[in-house]
């Protein structure tokens, strides 16, 4: 029994009887989707336990690939909005998902926005994410809680730098994805080149499920390779869909691409592989079933085509979301049992099981803090008591809402697989909420380190209160936005992911808090490291009447190898940061009890605290191993404080002997310019001490890939515009910290010395 537009499939014995005998009659979609057998999960749905038709998806891409425009069309076709507005529309309304005034003004997405809609029989939760690398945390936390994603690619730009970053994030959280080649109406559109880039640059096993009917200004629709039929879109909003036979001019290409699709999926799906080897032609349902199994298993990525702006292909993409992406119960979600030394526990997408949910995003709303919650197990109800397992605090759920961009809809309860928001709950991003008696925690998301800092101060004393409120709120909302007080200068330093990131927060202070801010020169977040092994032997001894202080530490420090650093970085990416501080590894190599075991932890704390302030320019030290080989303690005078102070002083004593170096953040930069400006732009990159990695001609443009020190990239956007008559654009993201040259190191050390003298005076 299937909804209109879906081929009916045969239900297992006994299931049809249950449906026929139901009062009122149940409508059940094609069994287990796309012809796959109906398992226990779908039977549970028939009894009202879980919803196998639900989808939680994210829309992610490079800047200006059309994510928000695509979401606007999805909301229109699913009936959530009744008018289409453009991102930079002349009517001044702006897209629904860009609810912030700054987003509508700049034409970019700054915060991820959640909404929900219904397509045919499926409830779809959607999160629209930013494309700019400065707001990468928004993509990171969205993908952490989603079951599937749409990776939007521009048919002209293809796979760009942020497309690669987003794909890496999808892999990190094991998110299956569909690819959508957007903007097939643009001049220079070439979806087949994009498919090759998806295979070569993203290393995805991908094949097209569509063939475009015309490109550029002749783009009218697509041929659906699964059903082998032509679909064209007409009418003012693309709502009039005509289905017909494949045009004769496209028949050879369609035949070739359909064969390629079947071969690609048959390589990774056993059932379709058997049909293919027998030389048989798979039916529509068999092919859909195979694509679904391979997509859910993350061994295949179907590639759709269309133009969101011209309203072409969006409805077929929605069908693809329902047909090929997993339901919440088909994804394995693992929590850590805090009562059993963080043993992994597989959660069940069952509304009757004990509640487990993850707070993945915070936002300051009109009615207080808004906490976005993904429910993995159980049911949350208004008025119910839940526990924050990070703090142990019990909370009564005051209000439960479902979000539609900035609009809210009150709900009384939400079940496993849903995304909702809570009001008035004090928590941090990444906290786990559970039923009393269930003590588990979800693994946290990866938070990248800030790469740039600014000194900020309110222009007048009267604005100090609002200034503090704004900084406090932004820190709670955004884990990549850090605030600290510089002890030497007394300045407030804000740190973030780039110039745009910090500019947006300064602008938000002005608009939302009426707080005018003085902004200092941008600062780069340097690091320090050691390059040689060095021994230390330090005795901390102090006697001032009564019990004194006594602690002796002996050992050595050495730099970590590249392999060790990679292993530590991989470990911290998965949320395991319990024993690392800036990749400082402490080892106890003492044989016997020269130092009482109770004082070893104090030595560890002392060394790691000392490493937060390097001896060259006062920046944190990273990539170092500290090994304790001997020491001495006193029966009366030794204490944890004595050994901590001994470790601090030993680090300062040994640091210069270990040949320290300064590391600076280096950015991966991708510049797209018309080919006539190639020489000028490359010359400018060289003057900025950049290294050219690649230069590829694409149509009339050249894409230059290079690495450049961050401190040399300040103000680059203005210079690039003037060099290219406003036609050039660039994106950059953090690459790694690299050692600076000797002359730069001497200059930075001299500058730091002057600052310290001035502060002391």
UniProtKB/TrEMBL annotation:
GO terms for biological process: mitochondrial translational elongation. Residues 52-329 form the Tr-type G domain. Keywords: Elongation factor, GTP-binding, Nucleotide-binding, Protein biosynthesis. It holds the Pfam family GTP_EFTU. GO terms for molecular function: GTP binding; GTPase activity; translation elongation factor activity. InterPro entries: EFG_II, EFG_III, EFG_III/V, EFG_IV, EFG_V-like, EFTu-like_2, G_TR_CS, P-loop_NTPase. Gene3D superfamilies: 3.30.230.10, 3.30.70.240, Elongation Factor G (Translational Gtpase), domain 3, P-loop containing nucleotide triphosphate hydrolases, Translation factors. PROSITE patterns: G_TR_1, G_TR_2. GO terms for cellular component: mitochondrion. It comes from the Eukaryota. HAMAP family: EF_G_EF_2_B (MF_00054_B). Belongs to the TRAFAC class translation factor GTPase superfamily. Classic translation factor GTPase family. EF-G/EF-2 subfamily. This is Elongation factor G 1. It comes from Micromonas pusilla.
